[in-house]
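Q: What would this chain look like folded?
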Amino acid sequence: MTTSATSPAVGAPADQSSIPVTLTRRPGRWIDGWNPENTTFWQQEGRAIARRNLGWSIFTEFLGFIVWQLWSIVVVMLPHAGFTFTSSEAFWLISLPSLVGATMRFPYTFMVARVGGRNWTIISAALLLIPAILLGVVVSNPATPFGVMLVVAGLAGLGGGNFASSMSNITYFFPQKEKGWALGLNAAGGNIGTAVAQFAVPIVVTLGAAATLNVPLAGWMWVPLILLAIWGAWRYMDNLSNAKADLAGSAAALREPHLWILSLLYIGTFGSFIGFASVFPKLIADQFPAFSTIQVGQATLSLAFLGALVGSLARPYGGRLADRLGGARVTVGAFAVMALGALAVLWTMPLKSFGIFLVCFLVLFAATGIGNGSTYRMIPNVFAGRTRAMGGDAAAAAAMQRKAAAALGLISAIGAYGGFVIPQVLNASQSSTGGYTAAFVGFVIAYAVLLTLTIAVYVIPRRSLAGQRI
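A: My prediction, written as structure tokens:
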């Protein structure tokens, strides 16, 4: 074992920032005594360790999102590879990874505390090899039964769970004043994996393939990067012994009505982002087959990646605007633009103009990204308002803070179910009416309802939140 120590700053107040920090390193890269709130320790040693762990966490989560969303782009290639699935079956291949991924976020949230952040990052990265390799195997044979394809698509949901464990792990490394920055980077790094998958896969599977598609490469191409992530986590990441699962806090948060209201809002924002991102390649292929892929030299390119890219890049600005204007107001604006974007898609689809269709969807994606950031930013503010409204003592405030911390993970898991709902609503619309008009009418109504709910509960001052606007 090796140890390192720092002394408290001269004249520091008698709080955590003045408590001397002595790190004890044990085999397996375990660290005892971690306290990022100690300013001297943080500046001298803690920040470098935390950022090293953050970097590899982002990379692993990035690959998790890629694997999670691989089927969104692979599905539109299957007909060219000899598969003859129906449109409804294609929607199930697209949506099932989101259903599994959302469900996996619940156990993944607690695995960091049980086995260690470094250890679970290694395990969760290794699990990505299963859906990546199996995808490469099953798409190589057009005779593969739909049931087998569906099981393999479902396994891609393992990548969706990575977000929860990665966010849970990183929150322990950073001081309170830098958690927002670190978690924002972590989230954005993961979200952008969707865009990278939809951008890179069409290029790789067509390079050197002449008139055919080498679809198995869509899975195999990520194996070296996953192996790199496993090695990086093993070599450079750390386990913190003070990372403890707060099961009592989670149980208490589930009894808090505001958790369920915020979950609905997050289904509307993040659920719409991941749902539309996964189905966008198929929507383009269905509505504008001539623009499904664009030839660039010997490779082909799908413009579907632009939706996920715009939504991912917009997310940090949603958080920043929420800091300045208030999360509820920004969320209201996001839902308003989402409703208008869905309405614009509905009105302009009969024009059969791909340019207008793309612009309308990019506006919709940008609004979902803004809403992701602002809704997530609302969570701690809502629980802080609940603390003030209850007028409790320090113990009550601490209990509410535990609820807020647990709510962040739970809401991120519940919100991910929107990634299953969006494609299935589109599937139901197409199956029953032959088109997507009914689905987009439903989306407009849903966004209007969520907008009204946000105003009623969080914009209008309420006694349950100490009369403050969120």
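The chain has two domains: 51-245, 247-470.
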